[in-house]
């Protein structure tokens, strides 16, 4: 029978659906067991593994690769545990399983924003504003995860076989739909799909070995032939490929190993900011969620990683916890507007360089922004390479100030 991956937005009845599907199909839920087995085998804390799902600080990501190592451990443990069928892999973990395993059925439970707000208020007794904030935070964590694993938004249809709108479907209806699909011939385990699951173990072993050496690259395996897929720009590519293959050759069971660039590999039009002396920490602030998430994804292709928040209040709270080097800030937002955010940031965090990016600006607002200390004032739509150049200049200013 199938392996089910069920990923749910917050307050979309995910836990209820998972439990009822497991009972109806007599499936085992692979959640805490995966976490505990990984922690025990690799001698890491379960709390560190959980933190790695939503992301560690960017400083740790660049210099210690702690997140990549932890996720590689989880992936390898998961690859071994899913060799048995009749499993439900809930939440974040399902995004680690490759689509090459044909008896994997990927399900997404999601609902419109107003429905989720109503469910949050009902379940938690929160105000409408508090409920909206809680959902934004959860969506942000999920977005970071799926960008990391699949370079995609968390609820994108391309990640799933079935997407169920829970604002229009009862829990029983969702359970019945999943039950029906789980029993279809399309997701029955075959010798070929079981071989793909077995290949996943070898690919996960190689990726784990690479991660321990400080490299995070995709891996694919078939019949002992392993391919390492490089998606991030590397200056000396051939040398890097040789280095990766030399590390991977230590893994038992490899018959042949190759390295190549992937579809997301492209030389940046500017030198990656990651090569500057200080680690890059970027915060994007915009209430247009689709725009800012797309901008974050496009910056990532230029080796520029960013955090995303959707209003001024979230931005100010984020900065208190984790001060960025550069903030890209919209002006027209509900609640605390961009000008007020800029004023507070430059007063309380003067070292943060703020780039205003707006679609509704005026000369008066530009003058005010410049007087308050904005590094640049840009208009939407913006060419991503142009924005990257402005960020590069902002980092240069930061580094020059640090040296003086």
UniProtKB/TrEMBL annotation:
<keyword id="KW-0597">Phosphoprotein</keyword>
<dbReference type="Pfam" id="PF00072">
    <property type="entry name" value="Response_reg"/>
</dbReference>
<keyword id="KW-0902">Two-component regulatory system</keyword>
<keyword id="KW-0175">Coiled coil</keyword>
<dbReference type="GO" id="GO:0000160">
    <property type="term" value="P:phosphorelay signal transduction system"/>
</dbReference>
<dbReference type="InterPro" id="IPR027417">
    <property type="entry name" value="P-loop_NTPase"/>
</dbReference>
<dbReference type="InterPro" id="IPR011006">
    <property type="entry name" value="CheY-like_superfamily"/>
</dbReference>
<feature type="coiled-coil region">
    <location>
        <begin position="230"/>
        <end position="257"/>
    </location>
</feature>
<feature type="modified residue" description="4-aspartylphosphate">
    <location>
        <position position="330"/>
    </location>
</feature>
<dbReference type="Pfam" id="PF13189">
    <property type="entry name" value="Cytidylate_kin2"/>
</dbReference>
<dbReference type="InterPro" id="IPR050595">
    <property type="entry name" value="Bact_response_regulator"/>
</dbReference>
<dbReference type="InterPro" id="IPR001789">
    <property type="entry name" value="Sig_transdc_resp-reg_receiver"/>
</dbReference>
<protein>
    <submittedName>
        <fullName>Response regulator</fullName>
    </submittedName>
</protein>
<feature type="domain" description="Response regulatory">
    <location>
        <begin position="281"/>
        <end position="395"/>
    </location>
</feature>
